[in-house]
Structures are given as structure tokens and as C-alpha cells.
Amino acid sequence: MNLNADTFPKSVQPLLKMFRVDFEPPRQPSKGEVIFASVVAIVGSLVADWILVQIGVRVFPSTKGYQHFQFSDYSKLTVIGVVIACIGWPIVTRISSTPRWLFYRMAVAVTVVLLAPDVFIWISGQPTRAVFVLIVMHLAIAVVTYYSLVTLAPTRRFRSHRR
Prior knowledge:
By secondary structure, the chain is mostly helical. Helices cover 67% and strands 0% of the residues.
């Protein structure tokens, strides 16, 4: 079955158009590129997290020993989130002719949603300074992951074979 926007109900088509889901993908990144970009995104995100925790503890000494600053605590969630994003990138490249545009907006939306637990633990009484560092960690993970995927596993326009 050849999937295109016209195969969807008329009521859904404006939404697909708004999000640039047109099923006219550019040339796909290779599996090797996606795997390499994913490894870079995971390692880069974990390094960014670690650096931000080190800075956070030095800038806010009262956060030293904070439970969510333990590598074993934040690394699991970081890896899970980054792997999900890395699975999402090849999917987005297959459903949109402008995958970077769509993936960027998805990354922003997902990052905002993933800030909800930080807000919840802050409202529940967790230290404001520690939660601030967690928020910065989320933002860093989003930036590292997005740029790793779109630059190291890029899509390409098909070349014209004119003679």
C-alpha cells in the first residue's frame, strides 16, 4: 500500500498539512548514520548531564548528594529518552519532506512535556536549585540529541539525473 496524505480522511488532511506530514520523504539517512548519530546522542547527553551536575553542585553547594544527581538515577532516564528520540528520527524522515522542521517541533513539544515531572517534584517540595539543574539537563539532552541526529544522520534531496 502506497501511503500518502490523500489516503487519510478529509478531516485529518489539514492537520497533516499543518505538520508537514506529506509522505514525500527525501533520501533517507543510512542505518549506519542513524546508529552512529544515536551513539553520539546518548554519550553526548550523558556527558552533558554529568557536566551540568558537576556545575550545579559547585554553583549550588546545598544540592550536593541530591538523589537525582546520582549517575545511576539520571543515566537510565536519559538513555531511554534519547533512544526513543533516535527511533523517532528515521520515522519522521519517512513521513515528511521537511523532516528537520517537523522533528524540531516534536523535540520542543516532547521537552516541554518532559519538564512536567520536574515541575511536579518542585511543587512537591524538592529544592528549587536542584530542580533548576534538572531542567537545564533536560534542555541540554534535547539540544544534543536533536543536533546529533539531524547533522550526523541527515536526509538528502534526491539528485536530478539530467544530462
